[in-house]
Amino acid sequence: MTQWLVLALAIVAEVVATSMLKASDGFTKAWPSVIVVLGYGISFYCLSLTVRVMPIGIVYAIWSGVGVTLITLFAWLFYKQVLDLPALLGMGMIVGGVIVLNIFSKSVGH
Q: What is the pLDDT along the chain (110 residues), one digit of tens a residue?
């Protein structure tokens, strides 16, 4: 169970870091830039702990899939990014893929 909490922390840290990239304005604004660096550092550290006990391909699929979906939702909410039907369908497939991995794959290592 602990590996799932660490993976969740990796995802949250990555989402925070990526969300701050726009605010950092090409690393010209100090605090958003600090948050980007710290967020990615925390995320990759947590990923390194997670892959000790779970297959790297599965960990990366979950981390990137959930991260992409959350970043897109963040951009929609805070940056008014327009999400058309193909974008919504694509995110739905990503979430569906993560669900299939977690429910049906023996590779996940529950």
A: 799 999 999 999 999 999 999 999 999 999 999 999 999 999 999 999 999 999 888 899 889 989 998 999 999 999 999 999 998 998 899 888 888 887 887 776 55
Residue whose token pair is 């369908």? 89
Which residue type sits at 86? Answer: P
Distance between CA atoms of residues 73 and 8, nearest Å: 17
The terminus-to-terminus CA distance of the chain in angstroms comes to 8
CB 45 within 8 A of CB 12: no
How far apart are alpha carbons 94 and 92 in whole angstroms?
A: 5
Prediction pTM value: 0.85
Provide the 10 A C-beta neighbour count for residue 54: 20
Boundaries of every domain in the chain: 2-104
Contact 39, 20 (CB under 8 A): yes
Instruction: Say if residue 45 is exposed, middle or buried (CB neighbours under 10 Å; 0-12, 13-18, 19+).
Output: middle
